[in-house]
TrEMBL record:
<feature type="domain" description="THIF-type NAD/FAD binding fold">
    <location>
        <begin position="113"/>
        <end position="249"/>
    </location>
</feature>
<dbReference type="InterPro" id="IPR000415">
    <property type="entry name" value="Nitroreductase-like"/>
</dbReference>
<protein>
    <submittedName>
        <fullName>ThiF family protein</fullName>
    </submittedName>
</protein>
<dbReference type="Pfam" id="PF00899">
    <property type="entry name" value="ThiF"/>
</dbReference>
<dbReference type="GO" id="GO:0061503">
    <property type="term" value="F:tRNA threonylcarbamoyladenosine dehydratase"/>
</dbReference>
<dbReference type="GO" id="GO:0016491">
    <property type="term" value="F:oxidoreductase activity"/>
</dbReference>
<dbReference type="InterPro" id="IPR035985">
    <property type="entry name" value="Ubiquitin-activating_enz"/>
</dbReference>
<dbReference type="InterPro" id="IPR000594">
    <property type="entry name" value="ThiF_NAD_FAD-bd"/>
</dbReference>
<dbReference type="InterPro" id="IPR045886">
    <property type="entry name" value="ThiF/MoeB/HesA"/>
</dbReference>
<dbReference type="GO" id="GO:0061504">
    <property type="term" value="P:cyclic threonylcarbamoyladenosine biosynthetic process"/>
</dbReference>
<dbReference type="GO" id="GO:0008641">
    <property type="term" value="F:ubiquitin-like modifier activating enzyme activity"/>
</dbReference>
Amino acid sequence: MHHNTEINYIYKPVFISKERHADKTSFLSFIEDYRGKTILDLFASQKQELIRIRHPKKRLSAAETEQKYREWAEGKDINTEGVWVYYPWSERLLHLVDEAEFIELRTSRNQYKITPDEQLHLSKRSIGIIGLSVGHSVALSIATERACGKLKLADFDTIELSNLNRIRTGLHNIGVNKCIVTAREIAEIDPFLDIECFPDGITKENLDGFLLDGGKVDILVDECDDIALKISARIRAAQLGIPVVMETSDRGMLDVERFDTEPERPIFHGYLQGLPLDKFEHISEEDRLPLVLRIVNAINGSKRGKVSLVEIGQSIGTWPQLASAVTLGGGVVTDVCRRILLNQFHESGRYYIDLEELVGDKSEKPQGSFRHNPHAPFDFTEAVRIADSLPQKQTETIPENTLADIVNAACQAPSTGNDQPWKWLYHHGRLFLFHDRFRSFSFGDFDQIASNISFGASYENILLKAHEAGLGVKAEIFPLGEDSPLIAAIDFEHTGTNGAEPVYAPEAVGVIYERCTNRNPSTPVEIPEAVFQQLKNAARSVAGAEFHYFSDKQEIMAIGEIIGECDRVRLLNPEGHYDFVHREMKWSPTEAELSRDGIDVRTLGLNNAQIAALSIIRDREISQTLKGVQGGGALVDAALKSVSTASALGMITMPKYSYKDFFLGGMAMQRLWLQAEQLQFAIHPLISPFYLFPRITKGNNAGLDEAEAARLRTLRKRFMELVPFGEEVAEVFLFKIAKAEKPGIKSYRLPLNETLFIVNP
């Protein structure tokens, strides 16, 4: 059961024509028609109030006022005086004083903040409002203050219960169009205000009608959600010289654009500079967020506003607005519009009426982003001392340029977050590989797993590069055990000598510098069996290594979801978040070039919306709030989007969880990766599960809170149901393989003079 549709669009009160109540007889027949409706005769009380306000000096008592009223009413038929107004939607008939007296009464308490002359001037002005959520508050404030004589209201939407967190209206209006509701509420405050509704909203076709019909509006108030409309309405307002006012109800942000005095002014204060504005007919979901961010210059948004921005379309449906902010916005816009119309305010600009700042908590200490690194920066004198503690070996020295070539190639190995955890010491003809724990200390390097994998990969490059130079390699791995920072002692000898380490696929040396992480958008081409065989052989050429792959779409997506959930755990964990923001990501090309480590944000292969979301998640407080509301679904989506275009997912495992097995696993990873590079396949590591799971399986939930640990246990269980290996293996490498364009930008490497030290060769 619902209001019939006709009545749903009625918003103008009906003024009963004078002749219908001109004398007693006509009055009686007219009132008969309204039998059964609510009839409120407010005439006498209004007339008496008028008498009172017209004698401010005397302060008439109730009795005196009544006396004066009786004198006035003498010999008059009161029923025929003033006006009768009928409100069809509420079936009420009201008897009021006539228009001039009504306005005098209703605005009497505006004086002299608004003078009678100003009030008259305002009554001849019109304001158009597009969007009636914030606009409802604006329209009612303007109407209540009588800051104009005509209002045009546009919104295609109807009131829903969830709107009533900020729109102050009754439940009986649910299902009624927002501008109709607003117009009726205004009519109930002041039936003499001229209101026009556009219940179909604003389109290209009717925008001009909205701005121009019945005289050009004096101000356009924009409170709509549609970005394309925001842009086109401003372009047209600028052409027509109509000032635009907008309030966003986040940090009380108010925009004033005086196209009436500056028609050449760029829309949105130039925040959209450089964008072809004509192409914003239909804006895709993906481009919407970055545009919103540009328009509101989101860096200045409130923390909670930004949290919500990232969660739109994830855990919440739309942009949140609170009644307090919307009420404030109604007041601010009314005040500014009144001053514009009265020629008391001439500026354009963006203003923040930010209550949390104006009425702020002074005791709050800002949280510094700093994390203590327990390791000292790498010390080469100490390294020499460790090297000297090994028994001396008789080895031949190699030319310094050959050494530089070999170590340079070793440094091209992948490392987590491109942290390059290696330091090389060439001493007494031997090359020592050390773990720089100061560089690799991070949430991602739990139990030094990530670093040991990188060392194995760099060692594989040494084998290839030495072989190319006609040298064989012999090495002792972890010669002083797993606690020592010494990872390997490496000897070079001219080939043909006995016992050198065998070299797998010597031709792979040619792609050491080509190999890279490829996060570009990819195509899930079918991978021929022969190619899989080659990849598998490469991975399994290291004793004990196993290669598993998943090319079934459903399995890929199931694993992808686990990867995404792990990414979310990692990014919302305080330590993981700190590393990501301050250690790994280089947020500008300059930063990447200067540090020569970490990951250039441009290589993430993200679309605009994802980069926008990422720039918001950078803030520690925002990431912690997201964690508190179990947000961050956008992070899971990013992983799912990435794996959805995979030809397959691959995994490399080793038989047992030990430093040495991870080192050997790193060799297997590098062999597979170089092989994929030669076959021109893109490899994109997706390793968060392999770096996080050991925290619960081997590390007593190290660095995790209870909720994170519980989440990971669930994910681990799901993961183990999908993979064909047991709990005890070392999980080395998890990646996506597909066809993709080569990245235009590659990760930098530290200069050799910072990683290789040569002491009395």
